[in-house]
């Protein structure tokens, strides 16, 4: 996104207190945008604000799986140019079927499908007609693991939602980034104490020779916010993972 295009924009980033969302907040602030980071954990939001230290930054506590909280959020923050969600609750979801707790599966659906649906429902009315909504799906929809059936299915469902919303909400643009393996705190829930070993093994497989960093995904989301001719698109940023 060109500096001139983002300098005066207002961006809501759900999941902006860590990982990919935090990297996007940092990038957007540096370009001159006003940024609102949102999430469930007030303490994490305040830590992120302390790290970013910008007068153009504010934080809002919200659980996007609760419709009333989402409606209230948009009632409070006013007009926006872009909405982004990198939020996902996958704790307990990476299990083989005999060990899978349905409540863990439901949390994935609520955070990665119903949450984005609610953000679009209540966010679209406050968006600029030239604005955008960007979500994050993931490589699991294309290269699922034996323990990843729930995440694979939800990512695929979210991508279908993106295409439908791009038609319904036009001219507002709706897109998703599909990250590959990215070194973020979410890997604690996927690999536990084998995180470094698991990521290192994948890095050796990928054509680019490394796993992703949050900044790689922030760069891709910035493109989707700024490119006025891109909608209903899934942007794959996965180091060639679909090829191997």
Continuous helix count: 9
The biggest beta sheet, please? 7 strands, parallel
Mean pLDDT: 95
Question: Uncertain regions: pLDDT < 50 for 5+ in a row?
Answer: none
Overall morphology: globular
The count of DSSP E runs of length 2 or more, i.e. the number of strands, is 7
Give the terminus-to-terminus CA distance.
30 Å
Radius of gyration based on Cα positions: 17 Å
Order of helices and strands: HEHEHEHEHEHEHHHE
Determine the structural class based on helices, strands and strand pairing.
Answer: alpha/beta
Q: In which order are the strands of the major sheet placed? A: 3-2-1-4-5-6-7
Strand content: 15-25%
Keywords: Oxidoreductase
InterPro entries: NAD(P)-bd_dom_sf, SDR_DHRS6-like, SDR_fam
Pfam families: adh_short_C2
Family: Belongs to the short-chain dehydrogenases/reductases (SDR) family.
Summarize the structure.
The chain is of the alpha/beta class. It has helices at 3-6, 19-30, 42-52, 67-77, 102-123, 149-168, 187-191, 195-205, 214-226; strands at 10-14, 34-39, 57-61, 80-85, 127-136, 173-179, 234-237. Keywords: Oxidoreductase.
Structural account:
It contains nine helices and seven strands. By secondary structure, it is α/β, with parallel strands linked by helices. A seven-stranded parallel sheet has the order 3-2-1-4-5-6-7, with helices on both faces. It is globular and about 45 Å long. InterPro entries: NAD(P)-bd_dom_sf, SDR_DHRS6-like, SDR_fam. Belongs to the short-chain dehydrogenases/reductases (SDR) family. This is SDR family oxidoreductase.
